[in-house]
Amino acid sequence: MYRPYHPPADPLVVRDLTQQQNDLRQRVQLMPLPAAPRLIAGCDSSFPTPDTILSVFVVLTFPELQLVEKIYHHDAVTLPYVPGFLAFREAPNLLRVYEKLQHKPDVIMVDGHGIAHPRRMGIATQLGVLLDVPTFGVAKQKLTGNYEEPALEKGSITPLTDKAGELIGEVLRSKDKIKPLFVSPGHRCDQATAMQLTLACLRGYKLPEPTRLADYWAEQFKKEIR
Questions:
Q1: What is its EC number (predicted)?
Q2: Cβ(106)–Cβ(61) under 8 Å?
């Protein structure tokens, strides 16, 4: 993902964003889904330029994973990149895409972290709280936590824990001998459900289908805005 250079963030801005995350964190609920989903969404955001963002939602049937809808929104961003607060750059645009959806999903798989975040407020958690829908995160890189490398075989899993030993996610080898993924619950979802859905959405690629297709269509939609 594009990470433009920005000078150090204003301490007052950091303090305000931290307070907002702490407030949102009070609303987080971790629980199993009440029923198996019929529709699962994937979403992803990218920054075609330092000042613009393109966010994508795809909606798939579950468990068949047939694509039923794909949509995007391209807009300006006003908040500079601040480590640990990327959700504030992504969430507003993702909310606009979600509003456009004709098929509302039962659960959203987000390209990013859920509670596996220093303040437990990754993009999957923040988006879930703002929408009040079930979400979980599947990230390609660790943001925080400790783990042992899972075995090299597909389906190998190890716990991701914080400094106190609390489980904040799991590390999954989604394909033989490739770098693992980091799966964590966002909101109105729990770790077991997040992992179960991630495994159910693997189709031979590193990324599960909802986020893989969101990433694919992001590249296609970029051609429309050039």
A1: 3.1.21.7
A2: no
Closest CA to 200 of 138, 147, 127: 138
8 A C-beta contact, residue 200 and residue 63 = yes
Tell me if 208 sits within 8 A of 109, measured CB to CB.
yes
**Cα distance between residue 61 and residue 82, in whole Å:** 35
Residue 67: C-alpha distances to residues 105, 122, 157 (Å): 12, 26, 28
Span 162-175, pLDDT tens digits:
999 999 999 999 99
Annotated binding residues: 44, 111
Separation of alpha carbons 200 and 198, rounded Å: 5
Q: How many helices (H) and strands (E) does the chain have?
A: 5, 8
Provide the token pair at 202.
């693997």
Residue that is written with structure tokens 């999957």 in the block: 124
Q: Binding-site residues for Mg(2+), please?
A: 44, 111
What does the alpha-carbon distance between residue 119 and residue 25 come to, in Å, rounded to a whole number? 8
pTM over 0.85: yes
CB atoms within 10 A of CB 75: 13
End-to-end CA distance of the chain: 18
Token output for 32: 């199993």
Look up tokens 């991630």; give the residue.
198
The C-alpha atoms of residue 29 and residue 75 are separated, in whole angstroms, by 30
DSSP 63: T
